[in-house]
Amino acid sequence: MSYHDLFIQYYPSLLQGLWTTLLLSAVTLLIATPLALAIALIRETGSRWVAIPLAILVNAIRLLPALLVLFFVFYATPQLGYRLQPLTAAMIGLSIMGAAYMSEDFRGCIAAIDSGQYKAAKALGLSHLHTLRRIILPQAFPLAIPPYMTRAIIMVKATSLASMVAVADLTAAASRATSITYEPFLFLVFAGLGYLLISGFLALLQSWAEAKIARAYRLAPR
Amino acid sequence: MTLDFSILGTVWPALLRGTTVTISLTSIVLLCATPGGIAVALLRSAPSPTVRTIVRAASWIFRGVPPLLLLFLAFFGLPVVGLTLPPMPSAVIAMTAYMSFYFGEVFHSGLQSVAHGQWQACKALGLSPARTLFRIILPQTIPAALPPYISHATEILKGTALAAAVAVPELTNAAKQVFVVTYRPFEILLAAGAIYAVLDAGLLILQLYGERWAARRRAAR
C-alpha cells in the first residue's frame, strides 16, 4: 500500500489520538495550575508546619520518573481498592507531576518579589490574603509567564506517557499503526508534527502574552 | 487491603538487575550525549549561517517532540535503514540524540557567558582555534554549565524509565515484570521509587559539590 492509502486507513485513529492528547493536556494544565499556585504560596508565605511536609512531598515526587508515578496511580491504586479508568489515572498522575514541577517555577517568581513589600503591606494594615492578592501576585504574574509556558510545553510532551497505561493518545495511535503496518516513519513523523504544532502554538501564545503584559504593565521592552 | 513488604524479599534480585541496567543506560547516554552536546553548542555558533539555522531547527524539533516518540522512531525506524539493533543500543541512540540537543542548549549558553572578545584576543595572540577552545574558553564555560549539566543528568536518569516502552529491562520495566506476576504493584513500585530517589540523591550531592566548586572558580577569577 502506498503512503497515501495507509494514511487514509489510519487517519481516523490518529485524529482521535490527537484529540485525546489535547484533552489530556488541557485537563492536566487546568488541574496542575491552581494546585501549583497553592503549593507555591503555602511554601513561600504559609505556616512552616504545612510548608515543610509539602516541600518534602514536592521534592520526593520530583526525584521520580514520571512513568513510575503513572504506573503507581494506574496499577497500585486497585490494590488500595480504587479502580481507575486509564484516562483518569493518566490525568491524575500527569497533574501531580506537573503541579510538583510547576510549583517550583511559581515559587521562584514569588520569591523574586522583595520581602520588604510584605512588611510595607503589613505596616499599612493589609491582611495576609489581601497582601498576596493585591501586592505580591500582580507583580509575580508577569515574571511567571515564560517559565509557565515552558512548563506547559513540557507537560504536553509528557502526556505521551499516558500511552504506557493504555490511553489511546496520539503516541499510542501512532505506535499502534506503526507496529501493525511495519511502516516505521509515516505515523511517528505525523505524531511528531502534531506535538510540534501544539508546542509551536503555545510558544506563539507565550510571545503574545509577554507583549500584552509588557504593554499592560508598561515594562521596558527587552 | 494490607501492605506486605515481605514480597520485596523474593523480588529484589529482579529489581537489582533492573537497577544495574538503569545505571549503565544512564552512564552510557551521559558519556555519548556530553560530546554530542559540545558539538551541538559549537555548531550553534558556527560561522556559516546555514549550519546555525539547521542546528537550531533540529534542536527545536528534537526538544519539541516527546522523547517516547523518538524512542519508538529509533526502535522501529533503524532496522528499516539497515541497522537492526537490540533494544538497549537503539534506546541509547534515541536518548543520545535528544539529550545532545538539551546539553547543546546548556553548553551554548555556557559559551555565551564567555565574552566573544576572548576568541579575537586569542586569535591576535596566534593561538589555534582548538587550543583557544580547550585552554581558554572551556575552562571558563565549565563552571557556568556545571549546575544545569547535572540537573540534566538527573533528567537522563529519570528518562531511562521510558526505555521500558521499547523492551529494555531497566528498573521500571523490571518492576512491572515482577508486579504483574506477584500482584503487588504498590510495594514493588514504592521500592523502585526509593531506588530512583537514592540514585537521584547521588547526582544531587554531586551537584552540591559542583556548585561549590563553580562558586570558588568564579570567586578566584
TrEMBL record, chain A:
The chain crosses the membrane at residues 20-42, 54-76, 82-102, 152-173, 185-205. Residues 18-206 form the ABC transmembrane type-1 domain. Its main location: membrane. It is found in: Cell inner membrane; Cell membrane. GO terms for cellular component: ATP-binding cassette (ABC) transporter complex. Keywords: Amino-acid transport, Cell membrane, Membrane, Transmembrane, Transmembrane helix, Transport. It is a multi-pass membrane protein. GO terms for molecular function: L-cystine transmembrane transporter activity. Belongs to the binding-protein-dependent transport system permease family. HisMQ subfamily. NCBIfam families: HEQRo_perm_3TM (TIGR01726). This is Polar amino acid transport system permease protein. It comes from Xaviernesmea oryzae.
UniProtKB/TrEMBL annotation, chain B:
Gene3D superfamilies: MetI-like. Residues 19-207 form the ABC transmembrane type-1 domain. One of its GO terms (molecular function) is transmembrane transporter activity. It comes from the Bacteria. GO terms for biological process: amino acid transport. GO terms for cellular component: ATP-binding cassette (ABC) transporter complex. PROSITE patterns: ABC_TM1. Its main location: membrane. It is found in: Cell inner membrane; Cell membrane. Keywords: Amino-acid transport, Cell membrane, Membrane, Transmembrane, Transmembrane helix, Transport. The chain crosses the membrane at residues 20-43, 64-85, 188-209. It is a multi-pass membrane protein. Belongs to the binding-protein-dependent transport system permease family. HisMQ subfamily. This is Polar amino acid transport system permease protein. The lineage of its organism: Bacteria, Pseudomonadati, Pseudomonadota, Alphaproteobacteria, Hyphomicrobiales.
